[in-house]
Amino acid sequence: MALLVFLLDICRQFPGCGNIVTFSQFLFIAVEGFIFEANFGRKRPAIPIRYYLIMVAMFFTVSVVNNYALNLNIAMPLHMIFRSGSLIASMALGVIILKKRYSISKYTSIALVSVGIFTCTFMSAKQVASDSSLNEEDGLRAFMWWMLGIGALTFALLMSARMGIFQEMLYKQFGKHSKEALFYNHALPLPGFLLLAPNIYHHAVLFSQSEPFQVPVIGLTLPIMWFYLLMNVITQYVCIRGVFILTTECTSLTVTLVVTLRKFVSLIFSILYFRNPFTAWHWLGTFFVFVGTLMYTEVWNSLGPLLARWRKRPKQE
């Protein structure tokens, strides 16, 4: 929740700051992993570096494209809902690449998620096109940028699903090494940020020119945007570290359910706290996405036996 608050505070004042946010997150996690996981480079990786390079290329691309989509007239609620459709991409690529077959309930859940995303996307398109503050030419330009943003999100969704399949195959071959994967997925892409250096430096200057803020308790004074960025980086680290640990400590059902619920709660918080425009159609689309995701994880099958045991419990006199 805190991650979302700080990210939105940053993006509201500097909508094009996605690159500096991504770079800061990668740098922090890489430095932490270099010290505590790689033991200052003395520990050999369990998975060969060449496989990490492939994974990192996909991971870096997904992270940058997802953050950059916020610069392309994509509202945060739509951004979050669209990324909730990762189940669609995973199932489609699983069928194509791994030749998997699924039950009717799985395909039904995918249909619900697809309808939900289409509904939210279509209604957001109407909002962009009907913005009364824009003339016809500016409205068309805004709509074209929005369409480019949708294309970017679609590409990132498919790339993320392909990365998940690749990672699954690596873990089957070499075993699960969550901390190592977390480190290399963030350390190896750092040279790629040289391509974005002018944009990162530009926003670093803007951040330094923001109003001063005194950090509570310690009394340190620094530009408020740097404080927001620091808090975003720390909360992002806690979040992604938890996800990597969950992949090794819990079943895939538990991981999927936890991540889905986190996205849903974050979405509701974003709407209520930041007063983003959200119509009844958006609520309906969100409902379809949420129910479809729960159907995909087969949480109903897990809850059924629990309810049956609860009903058969001995009644107290």
UniProtKB/TrEMBL annotation:
Domain of life: Eukaryota
Membrane-topology descriptor: Multi-pass membrane protein
Hydrolase keyword on record: no
GO CC annotations, alphabetized: endoplasmic reticulum membrane; Golgi membrane
InterPro entries: SCL35B1-4/HUT1
Transmembrane annotation, as ranges: 23-40, 52-70, 76-98, 110-130, 142-161, 182-201, 213-231, 243-274, 280-303
Compartments (UniProt record): Endomembrane system
The name this protein goes by in its record: Solute carrier family 35 member B4
GO molecular function: UDP-N-acetylglucosamine transmembrane transporter activity; UDP-xylose transmembrane transporter activity
Family that this chain belongs to: Belongs to the nucleotide-sugar transporter family. SLC35B subfamily.
Record key words, sorted: Membrane, Sugar transport, Transmembrane, Transmembrane helix, Transport
Organism field: Apteryx owenii
